[in-house]
Amino acid sequence: MGHDVTTPHPTRSPYLEALRCIQCDERHPVADHPQGCPSCAARGRNSNLFCVYADTAPAHQRYPYTGVPVLGQGETPLLPVGRRANVWVKNEAVNPTGSHKDRFSAFVTAHARASGYRGVVIGSSGNAGLSVAAYAAATGLRCTVAGFDWLPDRVRTYLTGFGAEVRTFATDRERVALVEELAGAPDTLAVSNVTHPVVGSSCFGIEGYKRISWEILEQAPEPVRHVILPSSRGDLAWGVHRGFVEAAEQLGRPIPRLHLVEPYPRLSAVLDGASLTDRFPGDFGRLSSIAGDGTTVQAHRAVTCSKGSAVVVPDAVADEWFQRLCRRGHVWERSSTTVFAALDTLRAQGRLREGEPTVLIATSHLFKGF
Ligand SMILES: [Zn+2]
């Protein structure tokens, strides 16, 4: 062939020492923990873990793997927003498969390959499935995507083009059952959540989101005070928060407040006193990328540790912004445009002042047909 992109050879970082629980702080060995922290899971309060590195690890080497597949992910532009002073959009839609998930997929497939798995399985009908399928192909892993029956035809075409096996189901229960069944094989890794209470996705993949924070620090002309991002289970929010925490530890940079946008109260309800283990059914309309009836410890901690907030943007309000941005030529999917509406809400509520440096994360491209 001669012109293939180089096959990656992922290697675990020598600086990766352990995993630590977000909730109880307990350290665990570097391994897959699909229930999250074993101690918290035993108490029915599932929490994700995060990677801990040796103190001697340089800032740019605080990632779990080297030699991850490179399809062009990352280094996305930070764009000014119209005439609004000190507001920028981090345009994650320009990643290879059109969303921020590519940063996750690069690391989670590197982890799978380096750990000896032969295949991955993911429950997704959207950005995550598409992204993991592409990176699994690049890394030489089998991939099964468990989606819903309403999976758009064009997404199915892309997935099968990447060589993934596509299985669809009417209900989330059936979908999760397939993920659990396939992940029961020792050579297959589940890279999406299979628990209730919800944990979130693989911590090795979430580490890939930290680079977004470092890029924002490099690109923004002044220190950023607020970051607004769409959120369902808080993978992106926790990764971005960890990136800012590491930058604060190493460079003394202030940690921006994270504001997580949701289609109806979930995290907002928890911040108002509801339990993290509750289910929160609600109408997400066409905001399928941020749907789901659970929130997570990692989403809660990203907000409380950064002194941020949760912002509700219903589908009808998001649609106004979606239409407006499309007329200006922007190609972000509906869930991504919620961050513009959230900026107005936060200003109206006095939680964010005019002129305070703010970054909106536009997570995904319009053209996938969700
Ligand atoms: Zn724990």
Protein model, in words:
With 370 residues, the chain is of the alpha/beta class. The chain has 3 domains: 11-66; 78-100 and 204-368, Rossmann fold; 102-198, Rossmann fold (3-Layer(aba) Sandwich). It contains 12 helices and 15 strands. It has a 6-stranded mixed beta sheet with strand order 6-7-15-12-13-14, sandwiched between helices. A hairpin with a 6-residue loop joins strand 6 and strand 7. The model has no long low-confidence stretch (mean pLDDT 93). Zinc ion (ZN) binds at residues 21, 23-24, 26, 37, 39-40, 47. Zinc ion is lined by residues 21, 23-24, 26, 37, 39-40, 47.
Write the layout of secondary structure elements.
Elements: E1 11-12, E2 16-21, E3 27-28, H1 38-42, E4 49-53, E5 65-66, E6 78-80, E7 87-91, H2 101-114, E8 119-123, H3 127-139, E9 142-148, H4 153-161, E10 165-169, H5 172-183, E11 188-190, H6 203-206, H7 210-219, E12 226-230, H8 235-251, E13 257-262, H9 267-271, H10 297-305, E14 309-312, H11 315-327, H12 338-348, E15 358-362
Parallel strand pairs: 7-15, 8-9, 8-11, 9-10, 12-13, 12-15, 13-14
Antiparallel strand pairs: 1-5, 2-3, 2-4, 6-7
The protein binds zinc ion.
Zinc ion is lined by residues 21, 23-24, 26, 37, 39-40, 47.
| Order of helix and strand elements from N to C terminus | EEEHEEEEHEHEHEHEHHEHEHHEHHE
Helix count from the secondary structure assignment: 12
Spatially, the strands of the biggest sheet line up as 6-7-15-12-13-14
Shape: globular
Bound small molecules, by name, code or SMILES, are:
zinc ion
Q: What is the average per-residue confidence, as pLDDT, rounded to a whole number?
A: 93
How much of the residues is beta strand, in percent? 15-25%
Fraction of residues in helix:
25-40%
- Class by helix and strand content? alpha/beta
Examine the coordinates and then state which fold CATH places here, giving the name of the CATH topology of the largest domain.
Rossmann fold
Overall tally of domains: 3
Q: What is the terminal separation in angstroms?
A: 35 Å
CATH architecture level-2 label of the largest domain: 3-Layer(aba) Sandwich
CATH class of the largest domain: Alpha Beta
Largest sheet: 6 strands, mixed
